[in-house]
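Anyone able to model this chain together with S-adenosyl-L-homocysteine?
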Amino acid sequence: MSNAKGKAEAETCPVYKKCGGCQLRNLSYPEQLSFKQAKVIGLLKEFGRVEPIIGMENPCHYRNKVQAAFYTDRRGKIISGVYQSGTHRVVGIDSCLIEDETADKIIVAVRKLLPSFKMKTYDEDARRGFLRHVLVKRGFATNQVMLVLVTATPVFPSKNNFVKAIRAQFPEITTIVQNINPNPTNLVLGERENILFGKGYIEDVLCGCRFRISPRSFYQINPVQTEVLYGKAIEFAGLKGSETVLDAYCGVGTIGIIAAKRGAGRVIGVELNGDAVRDAIRNARANDLKNIRFFKGDAGDFMLAASEEEERPDVVFMDPPRAGSSRKFLSALIEMNPKTVVYISCNPETLARDLRFLRDQSSYKVRRILPVDMFPHTAHVETVVLMTKK
Ligand code: SAH
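re: yes, here you go
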């Protein structure tokens, strides 16, 4: 592809440089895929052949979760958008090529409503004001929409009228939550929540299973590619029907629940975030699964304890955060000795480090390496790896 075309694509986004969210927007989509393929090959070729990356058919507006920071400039104009990379300056964004279009429209509508409700945006330096962030999540399969208003203080004077006004414009909003974050922090969400409308969560469907999503629990942000990714992970596991499966770093229980639906005999999940564990337990129930249990805790601690209690799963799925897994986890995994390990990674650097440890310390051998593009236009790449005993 020519450079001219890459430039033209980058130019379709007016804030491409300032935002910094789409690091690869200067490349065409096929070029982005080649770039990611080469990156994974570079980091993982010592473990075997890297299969061709699975890209998206339509790599636009795939983000089901959109977050905007709010700011009022010196002339009193309200801006909503993202922090300029590496700063706390808000870059105004009304629509984004990778974000859900309904979510973007809702954020603009919230911004336009603020003056008539005399709602002030929060000023980080002066630590004054009310509205800090707006978060929208949409279940692509169910079309349920959650609006979260993150405020610095709990008192929300005209909340009922505000809820009425935004719902009149967007009847598709199924729940509205006020999240209170009084702390001087980089974290968007605080601990306290008030449900202003609806159930306080939305649901989505992935691989035929239903999932509940709370404001604070982790959920994959590209549901189209998540189905592809989980489909491959389950295929790699080669479930026959009676296996015991461990889902480590399980979030709201997605992979374990899908494995249980596809016939796993018994499933155990472990996850650090308490909200996510609560959602996972409810998700198992909502999907009529009884052979599944979720535990809250550090995955490494859990593995060690489980292995000492002679827990012997046949298959371990592991899907750690960007920092990768821990020595403790990997050592306990070796001790546990499952036939099959499926490692799902959002960071090929830490994946390579962990695979090296397993290669040097155990008889696990990498059988398949498959990159999946979960985050088009960004530099991130997801990889699924299958390991079995030599
Ligand atoms: N498998 C899930 C979640 C993957 S994201 C899915 O696909 O949706 C990684 C998850 O690991 C997050 O939910 C995060 O809360 C959790 N996590 C982070 N550190 C952890 C630790 N030390 N022990 C257990 N879980 C952890």
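Residues 303 and 309 are 10 Å apart (CA to CA).
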